[in-house]
TrEMBL record:
Keywords: ATP-binding, Cell membrane, Ion transport, Membrane, Nucleotide-binding, Potassium, Potassium transport, Transmembrane, Transmembrane helix, Transport
Protein's name in the database: Potassium-transporting ATPase KdpC subunit
Species whose genome carries this gene: Streptomyces harbinensis
Transmembrane stretches, start-end: 12-35
UniProt xrefs under InterPro entries: KdpC
Main location, first listed in the record: membrane
Top-level taxon: Bacteria
Lipid bilayer topology: Single-pass membrane protein
Oligomeric and partner information: The system is composed of three essential subunits: KdpA, KdpB and KdpC.
GO MF annotation terms: ATP binding; P-type potassium transmembrane transporter activity
One of the record's GO cellular component terms: plasma membrane
Record NCBIfam families: kdpC, PRK00315.1
Similarity-based family: Belongs to the KdpC family.
Length: 190
């Protein structure tokens, strides 16, 4: 009887090892290889390279501050600590934060508070959205152009060139990837 149990245990162990190699090693390597071939940029995390150096991923928002850069949506910008605030629309704390942000953005951009777009005031659900609306990007053009000594029309053209339309023409909203726009801005400014 012990020999039969040992034989079954050995067979089970062989299957376990075989399936571990097939499912845990060979299959993931096959899928990774196909992805690298079919979608070379995406398989590596959509990394953005400038002069051969990785400056970030176009899928993850990064914090940019100061007058020289286009600013992203408010958020955590720590990929190890993502997530929304869990504050609902009737939260007094959220409303207070939105009011403060509206005042700060209006002052920074030199515009009336009622012209500040919603994405300048609220973070995304993950807190890491890499995109802003074209309206928020255009709101920042004057500040960025002045700080960099560039023609505002040239900066506006950069925004337009980095505006992505709706997926399939009707899904989602037009958007501007802040990292890609700032990389192009840095290149244009020399």
């Amino acid at each position: 009887m012990f020999a039969g149990v040992a034989r079954q245990a050995a067979a089970g162990l062989r299957i376990l090892l075989l399936m571990t190699v097939v499912c845990g090693l060979l299959y993931p390597l096959l899928i990774w290889g196909i992805a690298r071939t079919a979608f070379p940029g995406r398989a590596d995390g959509s990394l953005l390279r400038v002069d051969g150096r990785v400056v970030g991923s176009s899928l993850i928002g990064q914090e940019f501050t100061g007058p020289l850069w286009f600013h992203p949506r408010p958020g955590a910008y720590d990929p190890l600590a993502t997530g929304g605030s869990d504050l609902g629309p009737d939260s007094g704390r959220l409303l207070a934060e939105v009011r403060l942000r509206r005042t700060a953005v209006a002052r920074t951009e030199g515009v009336p508070a009622d012209s500040v777009p919603a994405d300048a005031l609220t973070s995304s659900a993950s807190g890491l959205d890499p995109h802003i609306s074209p309206a928020y990007a255009h709101l920042q053009v004057t500040r960025v152009a002045r700080a960099r000594g560039l023609d505002a029309e040239r900066v506006r053209e950069l925004v337009d060139a980095h505006t992505t339309g709706r997926a399939l023409g009707f899904l989602g909203q037009e958007r501007v990837n802040v990292l890609e726009l700032n990389a192009a801005l840095a290149a244009a400014a020399g």
